[in-house]
Amino acid sequence: MPLLSWRAAAPKGGSPDHTGPQGPEGVPGVPVDSVNGRPIAYVAGRGSARTEYARRDPVPRTNSVIRGLAGSVHERVNRIGQARDWLGRWQDKVQGRPQRPIRALDEFTGESLAQWALTNVLYARKRPVPSFGFGLAPVLTHSLAARRQRRLRGALLIAALVYLGASHVRGLAAIVVTVLLWQFIVGRPGQAILRWGFSALVPAVLLAGVLFGLWTFVRPRIPVLRDAALDGLLVAPQLLIAITAVYLFDRWACHAYLQSLRPGREHIAERPFLAPFAAKRIDGRRVTEQWQSIAYHKEGGADRFVGAGLDSWPRGATRIQLTAARTNEDEEDSQSLDPADITGLDESQKFEADELLDKVRDELEKLCGALVETHALPNCDVAEFFGVPEGRWKSLSQTSGEGDKHEWPEATEMCTEARDAPTGHFSRRYLAAQVVAWDGQIVVTVYAHAALEGNTLHFVTRPHVLAPLLPSANGTPATGWDLARKLAETPLHACGDTVALAARAYTTIGRGLGLLTAVTTAAVAVRQKDDGLPVSLREHCSRVTTEDMHQTEDVQRYVSILQSRMFNTVSAFLADHGLATGEFKRQAIEITQNYISGNNNQVNTGNMGGGMQQGHAPGGPANETEKAG
């Protein structure tokens, strides 16, 4: 039976974050005309195949998720807070309490996050996963800026050290020798030698002889050593002042970057300054993140689409045998009919999976506009996605076969893959309904797939939830008096950075002049090596589940509304084709009324129309009371 007429999704509109109904430049074109030079609209012995697919809405450009992720890469350690923690540890030790932790930046903020984003997203040899609720370009741009700032800071520190070392060679040498002697004396080697020297008479004589020999060697050179010590006392304050000044300007630059991301600023940088090669890669990432291929893998025993959310809910699967609906007269006549004639379908009752999904898409799009009795779903988008295995992700092209980056390489497969029987296809087409709420912090996506095979309809829904960002990955710029206070405290933080650098240098010198640091850096590089598997920057920096009560309620309501609308539409579609819907309604009610919300371990009840209330699981106390009544 021919497919229903396929039309492009109507502009959703209404959202100030969207750049327009046509989307930003670089969004892949919808029409696909041919496969290997042959029009795909023609399939031998079958109806007309679709030549277009439902595209995505433009990605929001300036919501809180973009600002939070981009601002978090410019965060610095709170040195004043660290000093308070150290003092608090001394108090804990005196009062016999457990020692409190020393605050520091984690892997989801600061330069660690910037390095992760550049390694796993920008310079990775794989396609980025689709970004939901935010765009990658501003975050990658600020990650590049953070890396450039780190390199500039390191270059200035080395330049200050080289300049002062060249002008005060003896002073710098005296500082290094003094540190080494001090570490030798107070360290394990010096303590062991002293214990050995005072353990008996012979070791004491030998130790005294060694010390006398050293004094005989050093005594003629005391004037030179005195000049070197005075030079060291002169160069040490200059070096500390230079390092503090470098850290001071570094922190002021971070404040400037954060102010460029303040909520009142509409334009956010999407291209790095004076970096043409990096800008070209960012443009490529901005195009590919709009493509509609999404990888799936198994995590914790459950299947999950990478990038759609760490909170993947249990799938809702219905499977029914398609049979014609029968009236009371049919029930009486069925006693004398052959079973094959009872279950047989005529041509008017047959349909294809594409036709069913078309109807579901049309009904879901009605949730995007103004509803009659209630509000529309916020930022609701209905589009199609091409689910591919995780192992195939690294082999997917980042450009089209014709070299045009604006064309989606899998667009042809999107239109032709579902025309055949689903058996044997790893990659399959999904219809996705997505709601972006809480200024991009909450993204709820429900994927639906319909398969017709052996006169059996298999309809599956897979809800996914993107939870809000972690607090450390959600950088917010200061305003008003808070900003003035932070700017005034910046010199103190810079002094703390200098002390921390001196402590690291002291430890590094004492542990083999950087050998341990080199080994640690190599281990981090191996750990961050791109393995070709799909990764999501948003999932890397997000919570697993929602923790706020109201956000959790909204998530549950969105999933209930979307799933109920999908199952209602399928039921009405089957009824319009004269097919029995009793078994399908029974299975759908079990899914929509009884499901568990992710890891929240809450059983929720709803109905096919999308209503929802908190309740007990079947067979729980509430049901037992009803049975007793």
Oligomer: single chain
Largest sheet: 8 strands, mixed
Determine the strand fraction and express it as a percent band. Answer: 5-15%
Terminal CA distance reads 52 Å
| Structural class by helix and strand composition | alpha+beta
Give me the count of strands: 13
> If you average the pLDDT, what whole number results?
77
Number of domains: 2
**Number of continuous helical runs:** 19
Low-confidence stretches: 1-46, 331-337, 596-629
Give the proportion of residues in helices.
40-55%
Radius of gyration: 33 Å
Give the overall silhouette. elongated
Biased composition (Low complexity): 20-34
Transmembrane segments: 156-184, 196-218, 230-249
Region (Disordered): 1-34, 325-344, 604-629
Keywords: Membrane, Transmembrane, Transmembrane helix
Short account of what is shown:
The chain has helices at 64-72, 79-95, 110-122, 136-167, 169-186, 188-197, 201-218, 222-259, 276-288, 328-333, 339-343, 353-365, 411-416, 480-510, 515-527, 537-540, 549-576, 582-593, 621-628; strands spanning 34-35, 38-39, 293-299, 302-305, 311-312, 316-321, 380-389, 428-437, 442-453, 456-466, 595-596, 603-606, 612-614. The protein has 629 residues and is of the alpha+beta class. Residues 1-46, 331-337 and 596-629 have low confidence and may be disordered.
How would you characterize the overall build of this protein?
With 629 residues, this protein is an alpha+beta fold. The protein has two domains: 219 residues, no CATH class; 261 residues, no CATH class. The chain has 19 helices and 13 strands. Strands 3, 4, 5, 6, 7, 8, 9 and 10 form an eight-stranded mixed β-sheet that branches. It starts with 33 loop residues before the first strand and ends with a helix. The relative contact order is 0.14. Keywords: Membrane, Transmembrane, Transmembrane helix.
